[in-house]
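User: I'm new to structure prediction. If I give you an amino acid sequence, what do you actually give back? Let's try with this one:
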Amino acid sequence: MPATTEPQEGKHQIGLVSCVAFCVGTMIGGGVFTLSGLAVDRSGPAAILAYLVAGAVMLLSALSFIVVSSRSRPGDSGYAPLGEILSPGWRFVAMWGFYLNAVICIAFVLLSFGSYLNEYFVASLGRTAAALIAVAAIALLNLGPADLVGKAETGLVGLKVAILLVFAGYGLAFIGAVQWAPFFTGGRGSVLGTTALLFTAYTGFNVVTNIAGSVRDPDRTVPRAIVVSILITAAIYVGVIVALLASGQSDFGEAGLGKAADALMGSWGGPLIAFAACVSTLSGANANLLGSSELMIRLAGQGDVPPAAGRMSKRGHPVFSVFLAAIIAALLIIFSREGDLIIALSNVTAIIAMLVVNVGAFRLAWQGWPGEGVKLPGGVTIPLIGFAAAAAQLPSLGLEAVLIGTCMTLAGYLIFALRHKTWLAGEVSEQKRRIRELETPLARALRRVKRTIEAIEL
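Assistant: Good question. You get back a string of structure tokens that encode the predicted 3D arrangement of the chain. For your 458 residues, that looks like this:
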């Protein structure tokens, strides 16, 4: 690629600490405040095992992401090599799957926001109404001053992680009160179902693969950022489960962390955790909106979807993408019969994307790891196990979710199949320029995280 098309060096490229901070902030969204209680209800103490297994399965697929994304050119997304390894169609399926996952997660985490807000602060508003108001607020935030999104995300990430660490610390202090037996409260089989439910808790790592070509020293930074982020997130999740078990409570439900905090920390614990849950869910929705916009911009820049879908205003706002994601999330919130279906749908779409990436890594291994980039030990072993482990989660998510998620993926592929070659001219070149120069919303937000970290270090 000509030197003029490479992203600027130095301050405009993203380093390891910034990538880890944003990945952890994305993964520790509203899911931990809702899914943790549901996991303990289903599996008891074995919920710890379910979180660890889900993290291990995700890590296997993440390793495939690493080998694929390490072959991206400067300025490209981490998915771009799939177009050469497999085909442009399969590259689209992977990116579309994660786009759907991000948009569905917006609805899921904001329903969690509505639950905590309704339970602890504004009972008269109602869960659905609160979630819809939050959708509008997040959309407006992403259409406001460009730097404000990065500032908001940086502050929210630090606050929610700090409160969760305090909660986990209380749990560790009372770990002697945990009733470890029976370990498999819902039976050994319940762990498999709970593991599938928890998949979405780790999908935020792909925020780095979205802009892998814009990361400083990507061959080293991207693998380290993904692995470190998953390990940190898994440790925080385990600490939260220990705190839930140490509280001595039962039947946690969606707002279970507040119930446990009341028991462990006193009357101030529940409101504090509820506040953290509201902050975290808003942060998670904001991060997923950033991620979905980034993917849509890059899909448009590749000519896979109409240019209007990735169009940015003069101030750098992806107006169409923000409105589309907000509308889809609002419809899911309004028409969702139960939260479990939304969670399952988000997992199905993410798993479809991961299956494609595992196939891409498998093909690279089969060909002897051609070209420059990361190589995995054991040849095809890790991609093959990653594919099998991800596919094994689908039956536990339910036939309805698998069918709907597959149909949503096929609907996107129909857009790709009917694309016009004329999309590759005109407006697309402007989108490519903004991507190369790291002027997308996600890149700006990551740079804001970087500047904040640098200021703290000074």
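You can read the tokens as a compact description of the fold. Here is one thing that stands out. The two ends are 36 Å apart (CA to CA).
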